[in-house]
Amino acid sequence: METEPGAAHHHLPTPLPLLRRRVLLIGLILLGLGAAMTALVVSDATRSAVQHVDDWWYRSVVNLRWAPLVTVSKGLSALFGTAINWPIRLAVTVVIALRRRWLALAAWLTTLLASELLIGPVKALVDRPRPPGSLIATSAASFPSGHAIASAVTAIGIVMALTSGRRRLGWMIIGVVIAAIVALSRTYLAAHWLTDALAGSLFGAGLALAIPEAFEVARDRGMFARSVPSTSS
User: Fold this and answer.
1) What is the DSSP string of 93-147?
2) Dihedrals φ, ψ of 137, to 5°?
3) Given CA atoms 161, 166, 169, 171 in this order, what sign does their dihedral have?
4) Nearest to 143 by CA among 151, 155, 154, 131
5) For the chain, domain boundaries
6) What tens digit of pLDDT does each residue of 193-215 get?
7) What's this model's pTM, rounded to 2 decimal places?
8) Which DSSP helix (H) or strand (E) runs through 227?
């Protein structure tokens, strides 16, 4: 049986450089969506509409509170707080360094630094009050959720730094689910409004995807020495 010309090419895997550019684009889109949500919260024209949605979500989660879920939510909040999250990040840094994957290490550290530098200025810009009746101690302004940014950067960033190939997709799904659960748990505890958590997740995921792939794209274009181990090798 003859094969139509070019049919064999339909099942060829996407070239790695093209895949990297696509992931970079997704990361940039997520960052853009985070910036757009920030603009909606800040703008006088849209702030009340955003708050209306946030108030609806706040009432909904308060009415659905269940003691075991509150306990789980508090545990997730602690896990991605400074006392535990940073030791996890340090351990990942050591693992990457021991593997001598220097480009991955540079991308990982840049992602962490960028996320930390982002939180303070955006909180200061929006200066949004926290929801009433938080079940845990909070500090600083509400928007965006620092926990949502941290969970997305850590969970997705670890996947980007330590996995590759077909394994990455499965681990990425797990990372995204973890980040989403942490973000929503913050609203369940009334520590953040829904849009605080959504924007934080968008910023964190965008950074975790865009920065490592930007390093890889730069490497593909010869901006880094070819001898430097890849972040996805």
Assistant:
1) HHHHHHTT-HHHHHHHHHHHHHHHHHHHHHHHHH-PPPPSS-SS---S--SS-HH
2) -70, 140
3) negative
4) 131
5) 16-220
6) 999 999 999 999 999 999 999 99
7) 0.88
8) none
